[in-house]
Amino acid sequence: MLENNAENKAVFSRIGKRWRESIDKVKEYDVREDEQAIDTEFIPSFLFSLEYQKAQELKRRLLEKYKGVLLEEAIQGERLKTGEGSCYHIENQEKININIINPEKAKEKILSNLKLIYGIGRATEYFLKKEGYRTIEDLRQHPRFGLESIRFLQTINDNRSEVINWIGRWFPKSHPLMLCASGLWKKEDFIILDIETMGFFSRPIILLGVAQVSANHISTHQYFLENIKEEVAALRGFLSHINKNNVFLTFNGRTFDIPYIEERLAYYRMKGELGNPHFDILHFSRRAWRKELPNCRLTTLEKYLFGIEREDDVPSALVPEFYETYLRSKNIGPLIPIIEHNQQDLITLANIFSRLHKEWQ
DNA sequence: TCGTGATCCGCACCGTGTAC
DNA sequence: GTACACGGTGCGGATCACGA
Q1: Residue pLDDT, tens place only, A289-310
Q2: Does residue A20 lie in a domain region?
Q3: In terms of domains, do A284 and A338 share one?
Q4: CA of A361 to C1' of B12 (A)
Q5: Is the CB of A313 under 7 A from strand B?
C-alpha cells in the first residue's frame, strides 16, 4: 500500500512537472526589460486582407492621435494595488433596463415541462397532459413517475444549480427552458464576463472585464495590464467580484473565457472557484437568430438587435498585435478601442440577455 | 397469461458549422 | 485548438396494445 502511494506520488509529480514545462514553454511572454519584439504567433492570413489593411490604418491613426498621451488622461481609472502587484482598474456605471423572467414564473414554466422526468418524451407528455397531469407537481402521485417527480421538486426548491444540470441532461444548452432557468436567480447575481487575450491558449490575458447589473444600472469593472507582469493583480481584481452565489453570463465563455481564466489561475497557482452556473449567450443567440443573420458574432447581433454599428473595431485576431505595438512604442493609442469595445461587449451582453428573455417568454 | 409487434425513449456516433 | 450545437441516423431496451 505504502509502496503504491509512493509510486502514485512519483507519477503525479512527473505529470505535474511535464504540465508545468508545457506551459512554461511560453517564455516569450515573460516580460523582457529590453525593447525586443514579443512573438505573438500572430497570423495575418487568418483575416481577409481588406480587414487587415483597415486595422493597420486604424492603428496608424491611433498612434498619431495618442502620441504622448498617458493612459490616465485617455481613460479614467486608478491603479489597483494588491499584495502581488498592481494593474489599471477602470470603473464605469451606465443606465440600463434589463428585464428577465422572475423566479416564480420561471419555476412555473419549468414545472410545466413533464419531459424533464426520466421516461417521459413527447408522446408520453401529450397523453399525461390529456389525462390531467399539467405539471410535475401533479405527477407526485403517479405510480410510475411519482418518485422522480418528487426528486425534481426537491431539487428545484433546494438546489438551483442542480436544476441547470438536470435540464442539461434532457435539453440542449441553448434551449429556451435553460434560459428560463436563469430566471431562478436575481439579476444582481449575474456576473457578466469578457476577456481580451494575447492568443487562444497559454498566453496572458491583457484585459479582464466584469459587469454586474443592479436595479437600473450596469457597473463595469475592467482590469487592464499595462505590462504582462500585472496579470496576477488583474486576476485578483476579477476574483474579488466572484462568490458562490454568482452566475456567469458570457459570450462563448463556456468554451473560451472561463477555461482560459482557469488555466491562467492554475499557471500562477492561484485559488479560484469558477464552477458557478453558467449561461452562454452565444448558444441562445444562435438558436434565436441564426436564420436571420449571416453569423452570430457579437458585433453582428449588436447591429441587428440594437442598430449599433461600431467604429474602429479591432478584429480579435489582431488584439495581440495591437497590444504588442503598445508595449513596444509605449503609445496607448492601439489600446483605446480594445478597452472601449470590451466595455461595450459587457453592456451588449446584458442587453441581448434581456432581449432573449423578452423573445422567449 | 403469454407472445408478438409497434412505439417510444435514451444514447451514441458522425459530419458540419461556428465561436473565441 | 477546442468545445459545443445541430441534424441525421441507427441501435437496443422498456413499455404498451392487442390477439390468441
Answers
A1: 766 776 777 888 888 888 888 7
A2: no
A3: yes
A4: 33
A5: no
